[in-house]
Amino acid sequence: MIKKERITEAALQLFAEKGYRNVRMDDLAEYLCISKKTLYNHFESKESLLTAALQKRVDASLSMLVEISDDMSLAFIPRLKEVLHSAGTALSFTDAFTTDSGLPDDLVDAVFPRLQDHILLLVRKLVDEGIEEGYIRADIPVETLPYIHLGIIETFLKMESRFGVKASLKDMLYFIQTIVFTGLLTEKGRIAEEGLL
């Protein structure tokens, strides 16, 4: 089992570095110092390997997001910030793969919407909680907020390829949080966000 995990991690690393279409099973076998036969014993094709590797990464991201979202030892604002930051990080990782035109469309359609759907549910749950606790304004259409947040992240992730604008992930997530918190929070929420409550 450890070998299979090692293979999926190495595959993710090579696919991220070189692009899916530029990595051959021979390259993976050589990188891992294993025979091609051993590699094919675990995965019948490059596509099945990528599917397993991405599912593993998505599962890990979702598990982490749920854990943060459910961590009631964190105050609401830090918990919301951490979920938004972690969601952006998870989506930025997946974006590296979705922009690789060598990926099979059916794979992209099978793996990434699941991550996006779960992020939308978690953000909606936190928005509802924030409204109930008085941290988030109730006059904003809450059903659209998670989609707006996801759309902002996806737009930022495509800025360089579409518009030639470079931004680090750290800067992008800080900017998104600033926009979200400036317009979303109540006075109580802004005070809590500034650490005064």
Query: Overall mean pLDDT score?
Result: 83
Separation of the first and last Cα atoms:
48 Å
Radius of gyration: 19 Å
Along the chain, the helix and strand elements come as HHHHHHHHHH
Number of strands: 0
Tell me, briefly, the overall form: elongated
**SS-derived structural category:** mainly alpha
Which oligomerization state do the chains in this entry correspond to?
single chain
Walk me through this protein's architecture.
By secondary structure, the chain is mainly alpha-helical. It has a single domain, classed as Orthogonal Bundle (Tetracycline Repressor, domain 2), CATH 1.10.357. The protein is 76% helix and 0% strand. Helix 2 packs across helix 3 (36-42), helix 4 (46-69) runs antiparallel to helix 5 and helix 7 (145-157) runs antiparallel to helix 9. It is elongated. The chain starts with a helix and ends with a helix.
Helix-strand layout with pairing:
Blueprint: H1 2-18, H2 25-32, H3 36-42, H4 46-69, H5 76-98, H6 105-133, H7 145-157, H8 159-163, H9 169-184, H10 187-193
What is shown here, in short?
The protein is mainly alpha-helical. It has helices at residues 2-18, 25-32, 36-42, 46-69, 76-98, 105-133, 145-157, 159-163, 169-184, 187-193.
